[in-house]
């Protein structure tokens, strides 16, 4: 689509949203679950196109943001005690732990390598052999099948010094908790995660909570279309799961990817920053893959960590507050000197507000 | 300085963004500023030396040393020439300081020096003094270069953010982000194949033409580290005015756009080494573009926005689809060792 058509279509969708919203009394609050959506919404300046009565709040779908401080502490203590090389996606290196981030650990002599795929992490392990190499396993259903496939390959290849410190999360358990909140009227569902888990599996939003959910893509027009459908259903008082991202997401998702995932992992409880422990919301290694578990293989005592009580990450991750309501935002907490991970992650809500602002 | 990291330099302190700014303001200026340094110009206009003379210095630590479209040698000439040019000074003399790591291949040094010579000849500057040091293996990464430059101000003009006012037009001298993206892609850890070269070049021919605008030329800056996002924010912050730019008007090569999507790097935050951002008076934008129409270094120049009274000290981007948002100053370790 040429830029002029794109702008015209966007304006048409925006005015359709405004017209629909006029038929509704009161606020409509929708949650974009996924951090990639959060960034895309802010980057395109979409909020400037919505009427006052339509609010979008961010959810818990940024993997870095829901990772606890204690996980960073764990990685640093483990690497220091066992002289391990840490491999990780770039976003995690600046997330503050209790006393410094992986960046400060590196500046103090620790080995931290940023990788762009789990396969790269295995290559680093081979190069570092026999030194233990620990990949920080953070992510949702989008990322985890790739990690699982990598572990299968590493097992077959007999890479002995490769480990993963797991903090994987799955999206349904927290979404069920959030769906029960009265002040959320519908969900912009994650496009990439849905490519793996499918659209059918969100039916509980409708059956149990009578709330609409729309799976959307990440281009500005994709998001406007999904919002139009959410507003339209809310105004009519109906609810359904609508797939506006059919070019990528199928009703039953990607079965092969899920099979690989559950060959390697099984559901376990997980602790979420801002949400606490949610039963069955994480993943643990199973069968022969337990040998990759860095936490089990390299025992280390990780003290409980405390979050700065003034940091509103918890309320922001659950859509109850927006970053501009936080007293630390932009003052004590900035991307170069963050208090919470939401300010660091390239998908973090606070980072999006800081980088793209509100006009 | 960040509270978690008291007492240590982080890569972000060299990123050219907010951390660099704090390092300069909190550590360097309180000790060394005797009046002129604190204005932090790209180059300083020396007074009391007869002719009007501009003076600047820059260090180059780019990794990799050779990249598509240039190497550390040509870059060290262009970078310093461009700092002089942005003060409205014709680059005339350069110094060349080499810091070499023990074991660095002689053939590579020779290739770099040939690039220095070629770039200097093309830019019309002479290398007139220099220094060479060798440090033990491991104390440097191959080669670092420092150049300082002296330029002649041919037409006294006040190129200062204080002259920027509402309605002024902003242009960029060509497609943005090429240098940053080319260097990132040529690093070993990326195995992408893009047809993409650094834009490294002297921008003096661009500035020389724009000087014909006289007082209508208000401000020039080469958007290196931090890209045009950093430069536009600098314009907004130092003038106290708002800046509005139109995303669809900012020229970005297709290959840069594709690479930026894959690397997750905003092309507006990626470094340029042969471009300038220019502020001209209200209504002078088209004339400025016309002056540049025969200038090869300014191919693809475009008007990208204007100065506003709304949103003081902020840069607001009108997005492709007509939304509005802030274009923030990049912070920290975005792209280490890009120049």
UniProtKB/TrEMBL annotation, chain A:
Coiled-coil portions: none
Transmembrane parts of this sequence: none
Record-stated family: Belongs to the HypD family.
Pfam short name (any one): HypD
Keywords: Iron, Metal-binding
Signal peptide: none
Domain of life assignment: Bacteria
Alphabetical GO biological process terms: protein maturation
Name of protein: Hydrogenase formation protein HypD
One Gene Ontology molecular-function label: carbon monoxide binding
From TrEMBL, chain B:
Domain PurM-like N-terminal span(s) in chain numbering: 49-153
GO terms for biological process, alphabetical: protein maturation
InterPro entries noted in UniProt: HypE, PurM-like_C_dom, PurM-like_C_sf, PurM-like_N, PurM-like_N_sf
Record-linked Gene3D superfamilies: PurM-like C-terminal domain, PurM-like, N-terminal domain
Stretches assigned to the PurM-like C-terminal domain: 166-315
The organism's place on the tree of life at top rank: Bacteria
Family: Belongs to the HypE family.
Name under which the protein is recorded: Hydrogenase expression/formation protein HypE
Species for this entry: Desulfomonile tiedjei
Source taxonomy: Bacteria, Pseudomonadati, Thermodesulfobacteriota, Desulfomonilia, Desulfomonilales
């Amino acid at each position: 689509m040429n830029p002029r058509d794109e702008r015209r279509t966007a304006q048409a969708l925006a005015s359709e949203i405004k017209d629909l919203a006029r038929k509704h009394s009161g606020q409509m609050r929708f949650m974009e679950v996924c951090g990639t959506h959060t960034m895309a919404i802010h980057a395109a300046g979409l909020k400037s196109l919505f009427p006052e009565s339509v609010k979008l709040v961010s959810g818990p779908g940024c993997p870095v943001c829901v990772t606890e401080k204690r996980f960073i502490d764990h990685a640093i203590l483990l690497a220091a005690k066992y002289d391990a090389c840490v491999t990780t996606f770039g976003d995690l290196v600046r997330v503050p732990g209790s006393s410094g981030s992986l960046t400060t650990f590196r500046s103090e002599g620790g080995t931290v390598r940023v990788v762009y795929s789990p396969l790269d992490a295995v290559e680093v392990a081979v190069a570092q052999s026999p030194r233990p190499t620990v990949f920080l396993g953070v992510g949702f259903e989008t990322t985890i099948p790739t990690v699982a496939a990598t572990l299968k390959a590493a097992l077959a290849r007999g890479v002995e010094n490769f480990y993963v410190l797991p903090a994987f999360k799955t999206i349904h358990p927290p979404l069920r908790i959030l769906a029960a909140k009265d002040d959320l009227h519908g969900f912009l569902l994650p496009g990439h995660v849905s490519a793996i888990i499918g659209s059918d599996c969100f039916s509980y939003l409708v059956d149990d909570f009578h709330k609409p959910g729309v799976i959307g893509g990440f281009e500005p027009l994709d998001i406007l279309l999904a919002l139009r459908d959410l507003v339209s259903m809310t105004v009519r008082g109906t609810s359904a799961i609508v797939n506006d991202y059919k070019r990528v997401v199928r009703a039953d998702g990607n079965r092969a990817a899920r099979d690989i995932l559950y060959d390697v992992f099984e559901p376990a409880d997980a602790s979420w920053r801002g949400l606490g422990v949610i039963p069955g919301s994480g993943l643990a290694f199973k069968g022969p893959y337990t040998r990759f578990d860095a936490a089990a293989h390299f025992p280390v005592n990780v003290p409980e960590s405390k979050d700065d009580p003034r940091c509103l990450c918890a309320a922001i991750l659950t859509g109850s507050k927006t970053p501009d309501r936080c007293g630390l935002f932009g003052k004590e907490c900035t991307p170069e000197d963050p208090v919470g991970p939401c300010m660091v992650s390239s998908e973090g809500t606070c980072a999006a507000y800081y980088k793209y602002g509100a006009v | 300085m960040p509270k978690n990291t008291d007492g240590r330099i982080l890569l972000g302190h060299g990123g050219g963004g907010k951390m660099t700014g704090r390092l300069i303001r909190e550590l360097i200026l309180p000790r060394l500023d005797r009046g002129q340094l604190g204005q932090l110009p790209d180059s300083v206009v020396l007074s009391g030396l007869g002719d009007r003379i501009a003076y600047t210095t820059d260090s180059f630590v780019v990794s990799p040393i050779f990249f598509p479209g240039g190497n550390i040698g040509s870059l060290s000439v262009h970078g310093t020439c461009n700092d002089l040019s942005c003060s409205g000074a014709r680059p005339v003399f350069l110094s060349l300081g080499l810091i070499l790591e023990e074991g660095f291949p002689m053939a590579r040094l020779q290739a770099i020096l040939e690039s220095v010579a070629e770039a200097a000849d093309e830019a019309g500057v002479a290398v007139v003094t220099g220094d060479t040091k060798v440090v033990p293996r491991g104390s440097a990464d191959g080669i670092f270069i420092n150049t300082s430059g002296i330029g002649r101000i041919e037409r006294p003009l006040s190129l200062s953010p204080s002259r920027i006012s509402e309605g002024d037009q902003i242009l960029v001298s060509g497609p943005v982000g090429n240098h940053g993206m080319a260097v990132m892609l040529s690093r070993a850890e990326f195995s992408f194949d893009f047809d993409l070269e650094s834009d490294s070049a002297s921008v003096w021919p661009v500035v020389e033409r724009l000087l014909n605008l006289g007082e209508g030329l208000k401000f020039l800056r080469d958007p290196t580290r931090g890209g045009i996002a950093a430069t536009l924010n600098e314009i907004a912050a130092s003038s106290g005015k708002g800046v509005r730019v139109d995303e669809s008007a900012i020229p970005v090569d297709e290959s840069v756009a594709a690479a930026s999507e894959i690397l997750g790097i905003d092309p507006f935050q990626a470094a340029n080494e042969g471009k300038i951002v220019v502020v001209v008076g209200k209504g002078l934008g088209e004339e400025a573009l016309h002056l540049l129409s025969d200038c090869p270094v300014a191919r693809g120049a475009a008007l990208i926005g204007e100065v506003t009274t709304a949103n003081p000290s902020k840069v607001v981007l009108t997005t492709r689809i007509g939304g509005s948002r802030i274009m923030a100053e990049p912070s920290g370790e975005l792209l280490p060792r890009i120049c």
